[in-house]
Amino acid sequence: MLGAHDLILNEVLHTRTMDDVAMDESLMAASSQSEDAFEKPTFINGKYGNPKSFLGWTGLPGLREGWRYKRNKDLSNIPSSEQELNKALPLVEPKFNPDAQLEATWIGHATVVVTLDGATFITDPIWSNHCSPFFFYGPKRYRPPPCQITDLKKVDFVVISHNHYDHLDVSSVRQLEQQFGGGKDGLRWFVPMGLKGWMEKNGCRQVEELTWGEKKSITINSKQFDVHCVPAQHWSTRTGFDRFKSLWSGWAVVGPQHRFYFAGDTGFCKEEFGKIGRRIGPFDLAAIPLGCYEPKWFMSPQHIGPEEAVEIHKLIRAKKSIGVHWGTFHMGSHEPYMEPKLLLEEAVKKAGLDKEAFITVHHGETRNYSNSKSEEQFHK
Ligand SMILES: [Zn+2]
């Protein structure tokens, strides 16, 4: 099938008599643009895969790595004292403004409530206490959500990065659909390929299923929003028997005035992040994961740490970023629980960025980005 870039190339070829030298330059520009197209996931025997060009993807750890990981020392050291946790990771009350030009509230882990040009959406909503098939078992939440779903004033759509339990939470999905779904302007769900059936089985009425490089335009309050599904380097499973059967992705939301990027859950894939920056960026705001990176030899194909997060911030051309995917669940990674925040501060400094360019926020904290002057009022 002819893509937009092939059409550009055809156009260039048909006007070749005009000026050969100039044409050669156009050709080069057109072909480099088509090289800039996003990678597609592989799809073999019903399973998705990270393409060969994702050099950091070395596959899932095997049995041997599993044993080595078990023997690795867990330095997470999450305090059992509520008092200590309240001090290190305080909860604050969200201050949602559904009319904001651009604001973001971190609920915890990868859950961010964003209002952009008057549309409100959530990334990977999880309000549950455990992320596992059981509500009483599995990685436990050590910081509670700062508000309930019933406290949300309005949600127009949700983007889901993949089906791991800490990103796709059945009770949050059902509750959000119940509260905001139904009707023409009801809640919409954006999911990567292979997840539509699961969403519908759980009651979601308007589900858009996309692959990398696809976008869907929607109208909210008579304004157009483009929701782009973009590559991420990760994997999927829920039951252990369904590995790679549904896709994983990041998401970019382009409104009439502002642009937002959510990296989802991902390893470092320089080429694709560069393309996201060139093709859809620059972004006014991004949510990028920071945590779950130790031991690196085990985690790095699927998760990044703070230094790589800063690299992504630069590659996607974000003006401001918020670090997520840390400080909420004990996910089984071994870094000290406050280290992602500290290493981010160091990495931001080392990269020569303004210290406000890429930050962590408190659970529940609402940051307004509509007007850069208003940032002064927030905590340091
Ligand atoms: Zn995951």
From TrEMBL:
Residues noted as binding an N-acyl-1,2-diacyl-sn-glycero-3-phosphoethanolamine in the record, renumbered to the chain: 165, 303
Listed cofactors: Zn(2+)
Protein name from the UniProt record: N-acetylphosphatidylethanolamine-hydrolyzing phospholipase D
Residue positions binding Zn(2+) 2: 166-167, 265, 325
Cofactor annotation remark: Binds 2 zinc divalent cations per subunit.
GO biological process, one term: N-acylphosphatidylethanolamine metabolic process
EC id: 3.1.4.54
One Pfam short name: Lactamase_B_2
GO molecular function per UniProt: N-acylphosphatidylethanolamine-specific phospholipase D activity; zinc ion binding
This protein's UniProt keywords: Lipid degradation, Lipid metabolism, Metal-binding, Phospholipid degradation, Phospholipid metabolism, Zinc
Domain Metallo-beta-lactamase residue range list: 121-326
Matches recorded under InterPro entries: Metallo-B-lactamas, NAPE-PLD, RibonucZ/Hydroxyglut_hydro
Residues binding Zn(2+) 1: 162, 164, 234, 265
Coiled coil: none
Catalytic activity: N-(5Z,8Z,11Z,14Z-eicosatetraenoyl)-1,2-di-(9Z-octadecenoyl)-sn-glycero-3-phosphoethanolamine + H2O = N-(5Z,8Z,11Z,14Z-eicosatetraenoyl)-ethanolamine + 1,2-di-(9Z-octadecenoyl)-sn-glycero-3-phosphate + H(+)
GO CC terms, sorted: cytoplasm
Family under the similarity heading: Belongs to the NAPE-PLD family.
